[in-house]
Write a structure and sequence with these properties.
CATH class of the largest domain: Alpha Beta
Low-confidence stretches: none
CATH superfamily of the largest domain: Alpha/Beta hydrolase fold, catalytic domain
Distance between the termini: 39 Å
Number of domains: 2
Shape: globular
Bound molecules: zinc ion
Largest sheet: 8 strands, mixed
Number of helices: 13
Order of helices and strands: EEEHEHEHEHEHHHHEHEHEHHH
Strand order of the largest sheet: 1-2-4-3-5-6-9-10
Radius of gyration: 19 Å
Mean pLDDT: 96
CATH topology of the largest domain: Rossmann fold
Protein backbone atom coordinates (compact mmCIF):
# COMPACT_ATOMS: atom_id res chain seq x y z
CA UNK A 1 0.00 0.00 0.00
CA UNK A 2 1.57 3.31 -1.03
CA UNK A 3 0.76 6.89 -0.22
CA UNK A 4 -1.14 7.45 -3.43
CA UNK A 5 -3.44 4.49 -2.78
CA UNK A 6 -4.50 5.62 0.71
CA UNK A 7 -7.09 8.39 0.56
CA UNK A 8 -7.01 10.89 3.39
CA UNK A 9 -9.80 10.58 5.96
CA UNK A 10 -10.59 7.09 4.79
CA UNK A 11 -12.71 4.81 6.96
CA UNK A 12 -11.41 1.74 5.10
CA UNK A 13 -9.09 0.88 7.97
CA UNK A 14 -11.98 -0.37 10.10
CA UNK A 15 -13.76 -3.38 8.61
CA UNK A 16 -17.08 -4.94 9.53
CA UNK A 17 -18.36 -2.07 11.63
CA UNK A 18 -21.36 0.20 11.32
CA UNK A 19 -20.10 3.74 11.07
CA UNK A 20 -22.19 6.60 12.42
CA UNK A 21 -21.10 10.22 12.49
CA UNK A 22 -22.42 12.55 15.19
CA UNK A 23 -21.85 16.27 14.55
CA UNK A 24 -22.24 18.43 17.65
CA UNK A 25 -21.58 21.97 18.83
CA UNK A 26 -19.53 23.28 21.73
CA UNK A 27 -20.71 25.91 24.18
CA UNK A 28 -18.46 28.48 22.50
CA UNK A 29 -19.81 27.79 19.05
CA UNK A 30 -17.56 25.31 17.24
CA UNK A 31 -18.90 22.39 15.23
CA UNK A 32 -17.10 19.15 16.16
CA UNK A 33 -17.63 15.49 15.34
CA UNK A 34 -17.75 12.01 16.83
CA UNK A 35 -17.42 8.90 14.66
CA UNK A 36 -18.80 5.66 16.08
CA UNK A 37 -17.57 2.23 14.94
CA UNK A 38 -20.06 -0.35 16.15
CA UNK A 39 -20.24 -4.09 15.78
CA UNK A 40 -22.58 -4.83 18.68
CA UNK A 41 -23.88 -3.34 21.88
CA UNK A 42 -21.22 -3.52 24.54
CA UNK A 43 -21.16 -2.78 28.26
CA UNK A 44 -17.74 -1.21 27.87
CA UNK A 45 -17.62 1.64 25.38
CA UNK A 46 -14.29 3.19 24.34
CA UNK A 47 -13.63 6.77 23.28
CA UNK A 48 -10.43 7.63 21.36
CA UNK A 49 -8.99 11.15 21.64
CA UNK A 50 -6.26 12.33 19.23
CA UNK A 51 -3.47 14.84 19.84
CA UNK A 52 -2.60 18.21 18.36
CA UNK A 53 -2.29 18.29 14.57
CA UNK A 54 -3.57 14.76 14.22
CA UNK A 55 -7.19 13.65 14.04
CA UNK A 56 -9.36 10.59 14.54
CA UNK A 57 -7.48 9.22 11.50
CA UNK A 58 -4.56 8.31 13.74
CA UNK A 59 -6.70 5.51 15.22
CA UNK A 60 -8.09 4.10 11.97
CA UNK A 61 -5.12 4.00 9.56
CA UNK A 62 -5.64 1.27 6.94
CA UNK A 63 -1.99 0.29 6.49
CA UNK A 64 -1.59 -1.41 9.89
CA UNK A 65 -3.80 -3.05 12.51
CA UNK A 66 -5.11 0.17 13.98
CA UNK A 67 -6.30 0.75 17.54
CA UNK A 68 -10.01 0.98 16.67
CA UNK A 69 -9.89 -2.39 14.90
CA UNK A 70 -7.80 -3.93 17.66
CA UNK A 71 -10.38 -2.90 20.26
CA UNK A 72 -13.30 -4.17 18.18
CA UNK A 73 -11.53 -7.51 17.68
CA UNK A 74 -10.79 -7.70 21.42
CA UNK A 75 -14.50 -7.53 22.26
CA UNK A 76 -14.88 -3.78 22.78
CA UNK A 77 -17.48 -3.60 20.06
CA UNK A 78 -18.57 0.02 20.47
CA UNK A 79 -15.67 2.37 19.73
CA UNK A 80 -15.99 6.14 19.30
CA UNK A 81 -13.37 8.51 17.90
CA UNK A 82 -13.54 12.22 18.61
CA UNK A 83 -12.41 15.08 16.41
CA UNK A 84 -12.14 18.10 18.70
CA UNK A 85 -10.88 21.62 18.01
CA UNK A 86 -7.25 20.51 17.61
CA UNK A 87 -8.20 18.07 14.83
CA UNK A 88 -6.49 18.38 11.47
CA UNK A 89 -9.91 17.65 9.95
CA UNK A 90 -11.05 21.12 10.98
CA UNK A 91 -9.72 24.58 10.10
CA UNK A 92 -9.92 25.83 13.70
CA UNK A 93 -6.25 25.53 14.62
CA UNK A 94 -4.84 27.05 11.44
CA UNK A 95 -7.23 29.98 11.27
CA UNK A 96 -6.67 32.99 13.52
CA UNK A 97 -7.44 32.01 17.12
CA UNK A 98 -6.32 32.23 20.72
CA UNK A 99 -7.69 28.93 22.04
CA UNK A 100 -5.88 27.20 24.88
CA UNK A 101 -6.16 23.75 26.41
CA UNK A 102 -8.54 25.29 28.95
CA UNK A 103 -11.08 25.86 26.16
CA UNK A 104 -10.91 22.18 25.29
CA UNK A 105 -11.34 21.05 28.89
CA UNK A 106 -14.20 23.46 29.36
CA UNK A 107 -16.09 23.14 26.07
CA UNK A 108 -15.06 20.22 23.85
CA UNK A 109 -15.05 17.16 26.08
CA UNK A 110 -18.23 17.96 28.07
CA UNK A 111 -20.13 18.48 24.81
CA UNK A 112 -18.75 15.25 23.33
CA UNK A 113 -19.61 13.30 26.48
CA UNK A 114 -23.15 14.62 26.37
CA UNK A 115 -23.62 13.11 22.89
CA UNK A 116 -22.06 9.79 23.88
CA UNK A 117 -24.10 9.51 27.08
CA UNK A 118 -27.27 10.23 25.13
CA UNK A 119 -26.52 7.17 22.99
CA UNK A 120 -24.96 4.74 25.48
CA UNK A 121 -26.75 5.67 28.69
CA UNK A 122 -24.87 4.70 31.82
CA UNK A 123 -22.70 1.98 30.28
CA UNK A 124 -19.02 2.07 31.25
CA UNK A 125 -16.94 4.50 29.21
CA UNK A 126 -13.16 4.12 28.84
CA UNK A 127 -11.06 6.84 27.25
CA UNK A 128 -7.75 6.45 25.42
CA UNK A 129 -6.03 9.75 24.70
CA UNK A 130 -2.80 10.91 23.08
CA UNK A 131 -0.48 13.93 23.35
CA UNK A 132 -2.26 17.24 23.98
CA UNK A 133 -5.57 15.39 23.73
CA UNK A 134 -4.33 13.43 26.71
CA UNK A 135 -3.21 16.56 28.57
CA UNK A 136 -6.53 18.32 27.98
CA UNK A 137 -8.71 15.27 28.69
CA UNK A 138 -6.86 14.65 31.94
CA UNK A 139 -7.36 18.34 32.75
CA UNK A 140 -11.11 17.93 32.15
CA UNK A 141 -11.21 14.81 34.33
CA UNK A 142 -9.27 16.37 37.18
CA UNK A 143 -11.29 19.60 36.90
CA UNK A 144 -14.54 17.64 36.97
CA UNK A 145 -15.88 19.01 33.69
CA UNK A 146 -16.19 15.36 32.64
CA UNK A 147 -17.38 12.68 35.05
CA UNK A 148 -18.31 9.01 34.97
CA UNK A 149 -15.15 7.85 33.18
CA UNK A 150 -14.39 4.20 33.98
CA UNK A 151 -10.73 4.34 32.97
CA UNK A 152 -8.35 6.68 31.19
CA UNK A 153 -5.28 5.66 29.19
CA UNK A 154 -2.80 8.46 28.43
CA UNK A 155 -0.07 8.09 25.83
CA UNK A 156 3.16 10.08 26.18
CA UNK A 157 2.00 12.86 28.50
CA UNK A 158 -0.80 13.89 30.82
CA UNK A 159 -0.86 16.50 33.59
CA UNK A 160 2.86 17.19 33.96
CA UNK A 161 4.31 18.05 30.53
CA UNK A 162 8.12 17.86 30.56
CA UNK A 163 10.13 18.48 27.40
CA UNK A 164 13.79 18.39 26.27
CA UNK A 165 15.76 21.65 26.69
CA UNK A 166 15.74 22.31 22.94
CA UNK A 167 11.93 22.08 22.93
CA UNK A 168 11.79 24.58 25.79
CA UNK A 169 13.79 26.97 23.65
CA UNK A 170 11.48 26.39 20.69
CA UNK A 171 8.36 26.80 22.85
CA UNK A 172 9.73 30.09 24.20
CA UNK A 173 10.87 31.70 20.96
CA UNK A 174 9.02 29.79 18.23
CA UNK A 175 5.48 31.21 18.34
CA UNK A 176 6.61 34.85 18.50
CA UNK A 177 9.33 34.42 15.89
CA UNK A 178 7.04 32.62 13.46
CA UNK A 179 4.07 34.94 13.94
CA UNK A 180 5.80 38.30 14.13
CA UNK A 181 9.10 37.85 12.26
CA UNK A 182 8.53 35.09 9.71
CA UNK A 183 4.88 36.08 9.19
CA UNK A 184 3.66 32.49 9.44
CA UNK A 185 0.53 32.03 11.56
CA UNK A 186 0.91 28.23 11.53
CA UNK A 187 3.41 25.49 10.68
CA UNK A 188 2.57 23.00 7.97
CA UNK A 189 4.50 19.76 7.39
CA UNK A 190 3.61 20.27 3.70
CA UNK A 191 5.67 23.46 3.48
CA UNK A 192 8.18 21.39 1.51
CA UNK A 193 5.63 21.33 -1.33
CA UNK A 194 5.06 25.09 -1.26
CA UNK A 195 6.02 27.19 -4.30
CA UNK A 196 9.75 27.95 -4.41
CA UNK A 197 10.97 30.90 -2.34
CA UNK A 198 7.71 31.40 -0.45
CA UNK A 199 8.10 31.67 3.34
CA UNK A 200 6.93 28.12 3.95
CA UNK A 201 9.25 26.72 1.29
CA UNK A 202 12.23 28.57 2.74
CA UNK A 203 11.44 27.40 6.28
CA UNK A 204 11.15 23.81 5.09
CA UNK A 205 14.47 23.98 3.20
CA UNK A 206 16.16 25.50 6.24
CA UNK A 207 14.77 22.79 8.53
CA UNK A 208 15.84 20.04 6.11
CA UNK A 209 19.44 21.31 6.29
CA UNK A 210 19.52 19.98 9.85
CA UNK A 211 17.70 16.72 9.14
CA UNK A 212 19.72 14.25 7.08
CA UNK A 213 18.16 11.20 8.74
CA UNK A 214 15.68 10.61 5.90
CA UNK A 215 14.47 12.20 2.66
CA UNK A 216 10.87 12.99 3.66
CA UNK A 217 10.57 16.75 4.12
CA UNK A 218 7.29 16.41 6.02
CA UNK A 219 9.11 14.21 8.53
CA UNK A 220 11.73 16.94 9.01
CA UNK A 221 8.99 19.52 9.54
CA UNK A 222 7.34 17.24 12.11
CA UNK A 223 10.61 17.19 14.03
CA UNK A 224 10.70 20.99 13.83
CA UNK A 225 7.09 21.25 15.07
CA UNK A 226 7.51 18.85 17.95
CA UNK A 227 10.26 17.70 20.25
CA UNK A 228 13.99 17.41 19.86
CA UNK A 229 15.44 14.64 17.74
CA UNK A 230 16.12 13.22 14.31
CA UNK A 231 13.36 12.28 13.98
CA UNK A 232 11.61 13.60 17.09
CA UNK A 233 8.14 12.08 16.88
CA UNK A 234 8.87 8.37 16.43
CA UNK A 235 11.48 5.76 15.75
CA UNK A 236 11.82 5.40 11.97
CA UNK A 237 12.19 1.63 12.23
CA UNK A 238 8.84 1.33 14.03
CA UNK A 239 6.92 2.75 11.06
CA UNK A 240 5.89 1.12 7.82
CA UNK A 241 7.51 2.99 4.88
CA UNK A 242 4.07 4.12 3.68
CA UNK A 243 3.23 5.64 7.05
CA UNK A 244 6.52 7.56 7.02
CA UNK A 245 5.88 8.80 3.48
CA UNK A 246 2.37 10.01 4.30
CA UNK A 247 3.13 11.40 7.75
CA UNK A 248 1.69 14.77 6.70
CA UNK A 249 -1.68 13.02 6.23
CA UNK A 250 -1.58 11.88 9.85
CA UNK A 251 0.01 14.93 11.50
CA UNK A 252 -1.27 18.09 9.88
CA UNK A 253 -0.59 21.81 10.08
CA UNK A 254 -0.83 23.41 13.51
CA UNK A 255 -1.31 26.92 14.84
CA UNK A 256 1.08 28.42 17.36
CA UNK A 257 -0.94 29.48 20.38
CA UNK A 258 -1.33 26.08 22.08
CA UNK A 259 2.48 26.02 22.31
CA UNK A 260 2.30 29.04 24.61
CA UNK A 261 0.02 27.20 27.02
CA UNK A 262 2.30 24.16 26.95
CA UNK A 263 5.26 26.43 27.75
CA UNK A 264 3.43 27.77 30.83
CA UNK A 265 2.72 24.22 31.98
CA UNK A 266 6.32 23.17 31.42
CA UNK A 267 7.47 26.15 33.51
CA UNK A 268 4.95 25.35 36.25
CA UNK A 269 5.81 21.64 36.20
CA UNK A 270 2.11 20.79 35.92
CA UNK A 271 -1.07 21.72 34.05
CA UNK A 272 -2.11 25.23 34.97
CA UNK A 273 -4.77 27.55 33.65
CA UNK A 274 -3.49 29.85 30.90
CA UNK A 275 -5.36 32.93 32.11
CA UNK A 276 -5.97 32.32 35.83
CA UNK A 277 -7.87 35.57 36.35
CA UNK A 278 -10.18 35.36 33.32
CA UNK A 279 -13.75 34.87 34.66
CA UNK A 280 -14.61 32.87 31.52
CA UNK A 281 -12.58 30.00 32.99
CA UNK A 282 -13.75 30.32 36.59
CA UNK A 283 -15.09 26.75 36.50
CA UNK A 284 -11.55 25.42 36.00
CA UNK A 285 -8.94 25.09 38.76
CA UNK A 286 -5.78 27.20 38.63
CA UNK A 287 -3.79 24.04 39.35
CA UNK A 288 -5.24 20.91 37.78
CA UNK A 289 -3.20 18.64 40.04
CA UNK A 290 -4.56 20.09 43.27
CA UNK A 291 -7.41 17.58 43.61
CA UNK A 292 -5.48 14.52 42.36
CA UNK A 293 -6.25 12.41 45.44
CA UNK A 294 -10.00 12.74 44.82
CA UNK A 295 -9.93 11.41 41.24
CA UNK A 296 -11.15 7.81 41.44
CA UNK A 297 -10.87 6.99 37.72
CA UNK A 298 -7.84 4.70 37.30
CA UNK A 299 -5.23 5.91 34.82
CA UNK A 300 -2.89 3.86 32.66
CA UNK A 301 0.10 6.03 31.78
CA UNK A 302 1.96 4.88 28.68
CA UNK A 303 5.55 6.11 28.80
CA UNK A 304 7.48 5.56 25.55
CA UNK A 305 11.11 4.90 26.44
CA UNK A 306 12.42 7.06 23.57
CA UNK A 307 9.99 9.92 24.02
CA UNK A 308 11.73 12.95 22.50
CA UNK A 309 8.62 15.11 22.59
CA UNK A 310 7.37 14.84 26.18
CA UNK A 311 10.39 13.07 27.70
CA UNK A 312 9.61 11.28 30.98
CA UNK A 313 6.36 13.20 31.64
CA UNK A 314 4.22 10.17 32.39
CA UNK A 315 6.85 8.51 34.60
CA UNK A 316 7.05 11.73 36.60
CA UNK A 317 3.25 12.02 36.76
CA UNK A 318 2.93 8.44 37.97
CA UNK A 319 5.24 9.22 40.92
CA UNK A 320 3.01 12.17 41.86
CA UNK A 321 -0.14 10.05 41.57
CA UNK A 322 1.42 7.31 43.69
CA UNK A 323 1.86 9.80 46.49
CA UNK A 324 -1.71 11.11 46.09
CA UNK A 325 -3.47 7.75 45.68
CA UNK A 326 -1.11 4.78 46.15
CA UNK A 327 -1.82 1.82 43.86
CA UNK A 328 -4.74 3.38 41.99
CA UNK A 329 -2.94 4.22 38.76
CA UNK A 330 -0.60 2.26 36.50
CA UNK A 331 2.52 2.99 34.49
CA UNK A 332 3.66 1.08 31.42
CA UNK A 333 7.05 1.95 29.94
CA UNK A 334 7.19 1.14 26.21
CA UNK A 335 10.70 -0.05 25.29
CA UNK A 336 11.94 1.11 21.89
CA UNK A 337 9.03 3.45 21.24
CA UNK A 338 8.88 7.20 20.70
CA UNK A 339 6.06 9.71 21.18
CA UNK A 340 3.64 8.75 18.40
CA UNK A 341 4.69 5.29 17.18
CA UNK A 342 2.84 3.52 20.02
CA UNK A 343 -0.29 4.42 18.01
CA UNK A 344 0.89 4.38 14.39
CA UNK A 345 3.67 1.77 14.52
CA UNK A 346 3.76 -1.36 12.39
CA UNK A 347 3.93 -3.51 15.55
CA UNK A 348 1.75 -1.44 17.88
CA UNK A 349 -0.87 -4.21 17.81
CA UNK A 350 1.75 -6.61 19.23
CA UNK A 351 3.68 -4.37 21.61
CA UNK A 352 1.29 -1.68 22.84
CA UNK A 353 -2.41 -2.30 22.20
CA UNK A 354 -2.50 -5.57 24.21
CA UNK A 355 -1.33 -3.62 27.30
CA UNK A 356 -4.24 -1.23 26.84
CA UNK A 357 -6.76 -4.03 26.27
CA UNK A 358 -5.52 -5.83 29.39
CA UNK A 359 -5.99 -2.63 31.41
CA UNK A 360 -9.49 -2.08 30.00
CA UNK A 361 -10.51 -5.67 30.70
CA UNK A 362 -9.35 -5.41 34.30
CA UNK A 363 -11.58 -2.37 34.66
CA UNK A 364 -14.58 -3.92 32.89
CA UNK A 365 -17.29 -6.25 34.09
ZN1 LIG B 1 11.78 10.56 8.48
Amino acid sequence: MTQTTIPRRTLEGVKDADVTVYPFATGDGLGLELTRFGRAECDDVVLLVHGLTSASDVFIMPEHQNLATHLLDAGFTDVWALDFRMSGRFPYDTETHRYTLDDIALYDFPAALEVIRREIGDRRLHVIAHCLGSVSFTMALFAGTVTGITSLTCNSVSLTPRVPWFSKLKLSLGPTFLEYVAGLPYIDPRFGEAPAFTRGWMLSRMVSLFHRECDVRACHMQSFQWGAGKPAMYEHENLLPVTHERVADICCASGLHYYRHVRRMVDAGRSVKYAPNDPKYAALPKDYLAGAADVTTPLLLLAPEKNRVFADSNIHFHKILERAAPGRHELAVLPGYGHLDPLIGKNSHLDVFPLVVDFLKRHSA
